[in-house]
Amino acid sequence: MSNRFAIAAEKKPFLRAWETALLLALCVTLLLGLLAGRSQQKLASGLIRLHVIAASDSVEDQQIKLRVRDAVLDTLTPALNSATSPRQAQKIIEARLPELAAIGGEISGSAARATLGWENYPTRQYEGFALPAGRYLSLRVELGEAKGQNWWCVVFPPLCSTCVDGAADVSALLDGKTAALITGESEGYVLKFRVLELWAAFRARFAA
What we know:
The protein is an alpha+beta fold.
């Protein structure tokens, strides 16, 4: 009997240390999640994303998606040249939503919808920069049944044109801190993006 008590006594410190380590890890994760979330929110406040959704994954529908993307950019990029803030850009886009839906419908030959609202995005890697997962104001263009693969980028500032043209230098379009965050010039930005994804998954799990 005494041997059993001795074994139990030996295990208690190990369990306490394990529980303490788990608690510390949880606290660190929460803290990093909060800090990364604030960075993402600050970044998102200066951007408007573009989300084009193809009718299906067929080769034809995917090609149509890219044609619609190009037409939307050709229409919006000149119109947004006068915008000096996300708020101004938002108003310009809202005024052109019917026109953008009509463009999508004309090119795709089916129903198309253009809306502006908030969407959750995963981390996306582009040529020369990446955008962290999070919630962004988004111009969403849905083609047909909208069951195909997506095309994501940024319509304001005009980073979509940067992606389409294959240019890697986006620093001229953004302030120094924002450019550093999305181009990897700030130490640990990849880790921050991963923390954001884990934080979002953690919140979703406990909110369910």
